[in-house]
Amino acid sequence: MSKRMFLSPPHMGGEEFTFVKEAFDTNWLAPVGPHLNAFEEEFCQITEAKAAAAVSSGTAALHLALRLAGVTAGDEVICSTLTFVASANPILYQGATPVFIDSETESWNMNPVLLQEELTKRAKIGKLPKAVVLVHLYGQSADIEPILQTCQQYNIPLIEDAAEALGATYKGKMPGTFGKFGIYSFNGNKIITTTGGGMLVSDDEEAIQKARFWATQARDRAPHYQHSESGYNYRLSNVLAGIGRGQLRVLKDRVAARRRNFEVYHKTLSRLPGIKFMPEASFGQSSRWLTCLKVDPAESGVDQEKIRTTLEQHNIESRPVWKPLHLQPLFKDCACVGGSVAEDLFEKGLCLPSGSSMTDDDLNRVIEIILDLY
After folding, report:
1. What is the pLDDT of residues 130-140, one digit of tens each?
2. Engineering a disulfide at 151: which of 76, 158, 282, 308 sits with its beta carbon 3.0 to 4.6 angstroms away?
3. By the 8 A CB rule, do 197 and 186 touch?
4. Closest by alpha carbon to 296, among 307, 285, 288, 311?
5. Topology of the domain covering 16-248
6. What DSSP string runs through 262-280?
7. What pLDDT, in 10s, does the model give residues 309-341?
8. What CATH number belongs to 252-372?
């Protein structure tokens, strides 16, 4: 059996160990320390956000963003439906209910027209949502401008879930920095990793300071342990922040490598009948965190599941496109505006191995197995 090929494994750059060793040598291990402060500052330099709070996961960052936005029990929050469950779980943490919006075909992300129609309808009956969670999927930015304008029209805070889109651009600026809050993930499979971690960003520095307070168990300023608000154990450790600092230094290289993966796949596989790759929208550059495609079985003679299982037989991991959240049992009672586009992408979509450490041999191995199915 050939060596296991993972979908998107971690890829260290070289400087990470230097920063981690420094944390050990100085005994700045947890929970905070100089690497944590520096990681936040360097992240702001890259994203051009004014303030950032490094936390234990992208999910934690989104939870804090929702609380900062004032989401409480009984509220409704609009969310993209074609996404991982972590985009909506924090809505439940706050006792609120998600309302899902379908995708559009240009970016596979939230359809701005459907959002506009839904908010217009809700405004007339006095039932506006408390926030909008906009997901940037697989390294591709959503069409932020019309979505932001709609949110501003109704004074609804926009929270950008850019967990999968670090290194992408929207009209020259990084997604995650347009709304009231933006969140990023440094999970082990992301374009850069701290093994586990996330970042909350905003131009509201006071709000970010509040997030840091909540993320460290909401401990009041006192010589004893005093708490006036509920908090969380959400802060990233100084050691993991050291890994993040090393990873930031190779972010551009990681984006370039993943975009190259896409180009190699696209050059050969796009010629096959029934194969259509996730498009790169006209309004920005995708990081191509994952290379995704659609397989039309009527034209191809095979479906995405046949390709996936055949790759698995050769010890290669691939993955279906996210199952839309409105189809998940957890959210069976939640409303969804539209849904057919996301459902079609789920039915036909497949994510190919996309790690930034992939070699030509790795890419050719995947391509040849798929070609053999035709």
Report:
1. 999 999 999 99
2. 158
3. yes
4. 307
5. Aspartate Aminotransferase; domain 2 (3.40.640)
6. HHHHHHHHTTSTTEEEPP-
7. 999 999 999 999 999 999 999 999 999 999 999
8. 3.90.1150.10
